[in-house]
Amino acid sequence: MKYYNFPFTAICGQEQMKKALILNIIDPKIGGVLLTGQQGTGKSTAVRSMIDILPEIEVHKGCQFQCNLTDDPSDNWCDFCRDQNPQKLRKPINLVNLPLGATEEMVIGSLDIEKIIREGKRAIQPGLLAKANRGILYVDEINLLPDHLVDILLDVSASRINIIEREGVSLEHPSAFILVGSMNPEEGELRPQISDRLGLEVQIKAPTDPQLRAEISIRVLEFEDQPEKFIQKYSIPQEKLKQQIQSAKKKIAEVIIPEELYAQVAILILKLGLYSQRADITFIRCARAHAAFKQRTEISKEDLWEASNLVFNHRVKRFDESISPEILETYFNEIFNDYK
């Protein structure tokens, strides 16, 4: 039975969620996104639908690590890709679901010590982090995942390298992925330190507009009854969004960041009572990605405002509940008043 993804552009409402996911596609170094909200609000549907707006990747047939064929073979290819001269193929990116019951070995993989000693070659039994390379790693109910596994995911997400160690032997492989976590806050909160390391957060609420809820029901039923026909209906907007994302990825490095912006961002961060340097860097990356998505060559006030809504709210909430969204907006307008 063939499985179909609900088209990303057919998702009703939830504009902040879609925006956060798109910005992480444009610049994965933003650091991922945390989707918080009750069950049944479309979080998993949106994550699965990302596959169809991402470009296919070129790999070697049979490679377990999705080696990037544009990288230097001597440094970044696995032994299979270097030694076998395998056939090239294009494939959709992987969406890897990390189950709550996963062990550390399932996540990071393991080493075949005997083979390493016998043949002198890198012998890695790939884990989920290998499969997620150049794809999406999705952790539902991330707040229920053991802290040490969350720390591993965040470390690898930042370094883009997975290191496997056993009995004094250490091997590594690339693991660059878009990290998406989701959770229901009613089932427990994340540690503040973890929240800071996830780039963006979106609080997702079920729509209260009757017309919007009705339209969601109509689209879901249409999709479930005739998925191919429904997908075809959205083929043009899907392709348009895909091209827009690709264009933004190519142009992001050309977006001008005003020199004074770095100091202004630092002032805002300190006024909010935040001290992690990640907040500054993530904010600038997010604003730049938004500017590229909007086909701008310089960061605007709109880009900064969109970034502030995605980067600061969860950090401020967990470190200082006295700072309301209204206070954040006041600080923002005072500091970025000269931007257009």
Strands side by side in the biggest sheet: 4-7-10-1-11
Main beta sheet strand tally, sense and closure: 5 strands, parallel
CATH superfamily of the largest domain: P-loop containing nucleotide triphosphate hydrolases
Supply the helix-strand structural class.
Answer: alpha/beta
Count of spatially separate domains: 2
Helix-strand pattern, N to C?
HEHEHHEEHEHEHEHEEEHEHHHHHHHH
Number of helices: 17
Q: Identify the CATH architecture of the largest domain.
A: 3-Layer(aba) Sandwich
- Helical content, roughly? 40-55%
Shape: globular
Please state the average pLDDT score. 88
Kindly, what is the distance between the CA atoms of the first and last residues, rounded to a whole number of angstroms? 52 Å
Strand content is 5-15%
Family: Belongs to the Mg-chelatase subunits D/I family.
InterPro entries: AAA+_ATPase, CHLI-like, ChlI/MoxR_AAA_lid, Mg_chelatse_chII-like_cat_dom, P-loop_NTPase
Protein name: AAA+ ATPase domain-containing protein
Organism: Candidatus Lokiarchaeum ossiferum
Structure commentary:
The chain is of the alpha/beta class. It has two domains: 8-54 and 92-203, Rossmann fold; 253-335, Helicase, Ruva Protein, domain 3 (Orthogonal Bundle), CATH 1.10.8.80. 48% of the residues lie in helices and 14% in strands. It contains 17 helices and eleven strands. It has helices spanning 15-26, 43-49, 73-76, 79-84, 104-108, 113-119, 128-131, 147-159, 192-197, 210-225, 227-233, 235-251, 259-271, 277-293, 301-311, 313-319, 325-335, and strands at residues 33-36, 57-60, 88-91, 95-97, 110-111, 124-125, 136-140, 161-166, 169-174, 178-183, 200-203. The strands form four sheets. A five-stranded parallel β-sheet has the order 4-7-10-1-11, with helices on both faces. Strand 8 and strand 9 (169-174) form a beta hairpin. The longest helix is centred in the last third of the chain and has 17 residues, at 235-251. The model has no long low-confidence stretch (mean pLDDT 88).
